[in-house]
Amino acid sequence: MMKKLGYVLVAGLALSACKDSSKFVINGKFANAAPQGKVYLFALDKANPVALDSTVLSDKGEFKFNHAAPDVNFFKVSAGHNEYMIIAKNGDDIKLDADLNDKTMHYKVSGAEEADKLETLNAIKNKYMTKINAIQQKFDDQVAKQPEKREAIMESLRPEYTQEMEGLNKEILKFAQENTKSLAGFYAANLLNPADFEKEMVAYADQIKDNFGSNPAVTEFVTRMSKLKALQVGQPAPAFTMTSIDGKQVSLSDFKGKYVLLDFWASWCQPCRQENPNVVKAYNKFKDKNFTVFGVSLDKDVAAWKQAVGADHLTWTHGSELKDFEGPTVRLYQIEAIPSSFIIDPQGKIVAKNLRGEQLEDFLNKTLL
Predict the structure, then answer these.
(1) Which of 50, 79, 137, 294 is 20 to 30 A from 330 via CA?
(2) Stretch 323-352: mean pLDDT, rounded?
(3) Quick count: other Cβ atoms within 10 Å of Cβ 55?
């Protein structure tokens, strides 16, 4: 037995020594694949995916890629309309299995440490997305039978949907926090909405900033979170100047000495337009109590912007750079979705963010009355 065990160990070491550590390998198999269909490998370490390789599927839907990646990084395998995230580095031998008819694009990946972690994350996502998709299907079925009750059906299913989304986000955040030295953990953190998890994502960026060398995606994330950190409650609001709706120059500093709601919105943004009556109500109630509103529009169409201001009775100061999400001030304030808002105190410090409806009125009642 001792001889046999020794032989097995030596044989294992020999096999390990023969493994090519100068590249990684992806062995994949797609169910329901068209014979001779094309499959592609992309790198995801740049702003846009970079095509690295392509091959043809076998009659059994099998394929294989070999590629060099000295540092662990993100890749994407694409077939038809289906795309699958991979994390790999030289020496990894990864196995990918998927069904190309699966509209949810669930897939199994294994064979390396990062791949196994990614599989764990995918299992978390799949568990909740199965429930969320079932709720969506329930909504579609009920609306098909009673289209006139669409809003009521949506409200009845909202608590169930919200519960599953909150559960999903909670587990994704936990996974990211427990895997700060894994790119799978970094990928998980990027699935979260910064508007809802700003504090957690800023703290996460501080934890990982030295863990992945000069990885472009991580570097960009850490830089973005650093800028977001400067916009947290308690920080001074960044100064800016832009053109007002009447063609004059207007600056944030013009409002110093007052509480100001800095409101990012646009005429084409339906949630913004729905929130506008709440802002109008707050402005009319508190405008004589050292409070005002400064609306920053993301519109590119001046006529549409002016029409919406008039139609919604927005009688406060307005400005815009007419550049959508690419405006310098919009980027300065890290706006990725609208409506977004900041309440700035008379000293120019951020004291609240993204308060809507009753939340906005409650804050102003406590602060100004």
Answers:
(1) 50
(2) 95
(3) 14
Question: Model's pTM, two decimal places?
Answer: 0.75
Residue type, 273: R
How far, CA to CA in Å, does 144 sit from each of 134, 147, 158? Answer: 15, 6, 18
Region 347-361: mean pLDDT is 94
Q: What is the 3-state secondary structure (H, E, C) of 311-345?
A: HCCCCCEEEECCCHHHCHHHHHCCCCCCCEEEEEC
CB 218 within 8 A of CB 212: yes
Give per-residue pLDDT as tens, 59-75.
999 999 999 988 899 99
For 136, the token pair is 């969506």
Which token pair is 265?
Answer: 């919105």
Cα–Cα distance for residue pair 306/230, rounded to 1 Å: 32
Cα distances (Å, whole numbers) of residue 283 to 108, 115, 361: 53, 53, 10
Per residue in 97-151, pLDDT tens? Answer: 999 999 888 999 999 999 999 999 999 999 999 999 999 999 999 999 999 999 9
Closest Cα partner for 93 from 38, 14, 16? 16
Measuring CA to CA, which residue among 80, 121, 124, 115 is closest to residue 101? 80
With contact defined as beta carbons under 8 Å apart, do 79 and 33 qualify? yes
Could you tell me the CA-to-CA distances from 232 to 120, 153, 201, 336, 340 in Å, in that order?
Answer: 32, 37, 12, 15, 13
291: part of which helix (H) or strand (E)?
strand 291-297
Structure tokens given for 190: 């990027």
Rounded Cα distance between 224 and 126, Å, is 28
Q: How far apart are CA 239 and CA 262, in angstroms?
A: 12
| Cβ contact 314:280 at 8 Å | yes
**pLDDT value for 8:** 37
d(CA 167, CA 222): 26
